[in-house]
Task: structure prediction
Amino acid sequence: MSSPPIQHPTGTPVEARLTPEKWRDRVAALALGPVAALAIRLGAAGLTYLLQIVLARSLGAADYGLFSLAWNLVTIGGFLATLGFGQIAVRFLAEYHERPETALARGFIRHAILATLAGSLVLVALGVMVLTSAQIPASLVTLVAIGLAALPFFALTDLGEGFARSQGWTMRALVPAYIARNGLMIGAFLMLLALGIGSDATVAMALALVATIGAAVLQYAWTMPPLRRVFPPAPPQSARSGWNRAALPTLLADLALLARQNIDLILLAALAPPAMVGIYFAATRIASLIGLVEFAIGASFGHRFAREASDAAFHQARRWMRLAGIGGAMALAMATPLILSLFGEAFASGFWPALVLLAGAAVRMALGPLDDLLTMRGYPGEVWRANLIGALVTTIVCLLLAGPWQAMGAAIAATLGNLAAGAALALAHRRVARAGDPA
Result:
C-alpha cells in the first residue's frame, strides 16, 4: 500500500508552501547532495584500496586472505541484520517529518533499533552455532568470533545511515561508515608499523572491531541529537505491523540483490580456471565504479521520493543518472586498458568483459533510480521480485555461457540479469502509475 500525499496539518501541499528562498535552497541542496555523496564514496573507495595495500603488506598473503574472508562475513551479516529497517527508515522518517507525526517517528526509531539488535543477535547466535559444530580451523574461528562481536555495531551504523539519509544529511549519513571506519583502521595499522609492532590476522580483526565500534559511536553522536530536534520528545506511538510488513520485502530485496550481484562470479569459479576468475573479478571492479554514481544519486534523492507526492524529484534524479551513466561509462571504458595494465599483462583479456558490464550499467542507469522510488513509495515487494528475476536470469545465462565463453559469458549473464531487473522495475512503475499512484 502506498503512502498518501504528504500534507501539512493545514491541508496545504508541501510544494505550495515553499517560498522562492526555500526553492533556491532546495535547488542548491539538490546540486550538492549527489556531488557530496559521490565525493564521499570515491574517497571511501580510495581509502579501501589503501587499506587493502596496508593490510596485504603488513599481514602477508595467508593472513590477509583469512582476514578478508572473516571481514566479508561481517559486512554481509551486518548489512542483513538491520532486517530491512536501514532502508525503510529513509521512507518513514521522511514522511513523519513532513506530516508531521513526531510520536510515530520516535516509535519507529525505537522499534528499528530494537529490530536491528534482534537481527544481530540472531546472526551472532547462528555464527556461534556454526563455529562450535563445524570443523573450522582454529585460526579462522578466532577471527570469526571477533567479527561476530563487531557485527551488531556494523548493523547499527547501517541503520544510523538510514536515519540520517531520511533528512537529507549526506555527510552524517555516509562519513562514519565509509570514511571513518576505514580511516580508523588505516591509522591504527600505520601506528603499529611506525612503532615496529608486528601484526597478524587476529590483530587486524581486533582493530577492525575497534574501528567498527568507533564508527557506530560517531554515527549516533552525530545523527541522534539533530534528529531529536527534528522529532521533539513525545510519547512513542507504534505502527509495528505496518513497519514490519514494509521491512520484510525490503530484506528479501536485499537478499535477491546480493544473489544477483555475486552469482556470476560464483558460477564462473565453478566453470572456469582460477586465472579466468581473477581476470573477470578485475573487470567487475572496474564496472562497479559506475555503481558509486548510482548510489550517490539514490542516496541524495531517496528522502525526497518519500516526502513529495509528485514524480518531479524522480525525473530530476533520472536526468542526473542518464548523464552520469553515459559519461561515466565512456570515461571508464577509455580508462579500462590502463586500469587492467595495473593488475598485470595477463589481465588485458578482461577488456571486453569490462565493456559489456559498463554498457549494461549505463543502460540500466538510464531508467533512473526506480528501486529507490518504489521502495520509498511503499512498494518494496516490486523491488524484491525485480531483483529475483534478475538473479534468475543471471543464473540461467551464466550456466549456459560461462563454460564455453568463460569471462565474456559471465559478463553477458550479469548484464542481462541487470537489464532484466531494470525492465521489471520499469513495468512495476508503469503498473503503479496506471493504478493512480504517484509512484
Observations:
- The radius of gyration is 22 Å.
- The CA atoms of residues 268 and 274 lie 9 Å apart.
- Residues 1-238 form one domain.
- The chain is about 85% helix and 0% strand.
